[in-house]
Amino acid sequence: MKVDIEKRILAANDEIAASNRALFAAHGVFVLDLMASPGAGKTSTILATIAALRNRYAIAVIEGDIASKVDAEKVRAHGIPAVQINTGGACHLESAMIRRAVDTLDLDALDLIIIENVGNLVCPSDFDLGENAKVMILSVPEGHDKPYKYPNIFQVSEAVILNKYDTMGVFDFDEEEFRDVVRSLNGQVPVFPVSATKGEGVDAWAGWLAGRIDAAKETDAR
Amino acid sequence: MKVDIEKRILAANDEIAASNRALFAAHGVFVLDLMASPGAGKTSTILATIAALRNRYAIAVIEGDIASKVDAEKVRAHGIPAVQINTGGACHLESAMIRRAVDTLDLDALDLIIIENVGNLVCPSDFDLGENAKVMILSVPEGHDKPYKYPNIFQVSEAVILNKYDTMGVFDFDEEEFRDVVRSLNGQVPVFPVSATKGEGVDAWAGWLAGRIDAAKETDAR
Known about the structure:
The structure is a homodimer. With about 220 residues, the first copy, chain A, is an alpha/beta fold. Helices cover about 40% and strands about 15% of the residues of chain A. Chain A has 8 helices and 7 strands. Chain A is globular and about 45 Å long. The N and C termini of chain A lie far apart (about 45 Å).
């Protein structure tokens, strides 16, 4: 019974996600779903990405959290529109929440929406939000063994950001093993070493994202 | 409708949890449900706790993970019985999973079972497993703002372990603000600074746990 219920919830979510996706394409907006554990550095990675790309694209952010509005305030302090979603206990964002948040934004004025999902390596990976790409962050202090334990999120992500890379010397993180396991789960997925709070490694990641945005714009314009 | 379904799932879980709790009391076994984000150091905290308490109590571990059996193998390498539960995608343990795992253990020969829940600051806090106490770990690299974003897990925990305390100098962690917010959410809950991999701070935490185990034994024996 429980599996049937889950299937019905996912099917309802997928339907709204497909409608979101059509809406985003019609307005030429690229949507990124950024997923990670609590404290992996989602907000600081978003701020670093904004700094790298704001002269090239008009950006807005949708912040997903169980509670609080601290992340949306951090983003707005940089002059970027931000919508806070409080899930009130739910462990992930769903496509209907994104639709309500998007309805408060001027899509014609935007090129890129970054969605910060709830801090969680499990549930967000199951839910299509209508995004163009799912990307995940793993932070070095979490350890190189995480792909063994949370394989699904590594499989659905189109890029992996390895954040807090500057703390590699402090933790016992085997980067070679990490890259091997990630590759075994998800072929040629790129891994970007980043220190978001220091701005290091952001250019390579932002360059990949810009490439995806420009490619989607060409497809949408056809 | 979704809320009703969630209520039914939680009610079914609570019923088995109550039965687990009676079983544990009948056998004089104390059960700890340890919750944390991925990579906060659950397994290393368990190993440090075992080292501190194994001469005093007979201990077994139940390891919960989406996939893999690496944690159970780490525990068994120290000569401690360990049962691995793979949830196959589910973001938390449930009381029925614990019952099946417990059925493989000799309860009369045990004083303490430590359950390592799935790495997640959200879902595990909603599910009673029949444990004597829920305890959570926050690790310093995750940041001092986490109680704002994940209040429920701080509210249901009877102790908070602040792990990777030795990296306090590397990260911008405001311990005073952290303790203030935790106190506002959960009165006099103790916060134990620990560096599990170095064994630092473990005595205070293990002392608290031993106090709880001994108190429960007295109650069970009445």
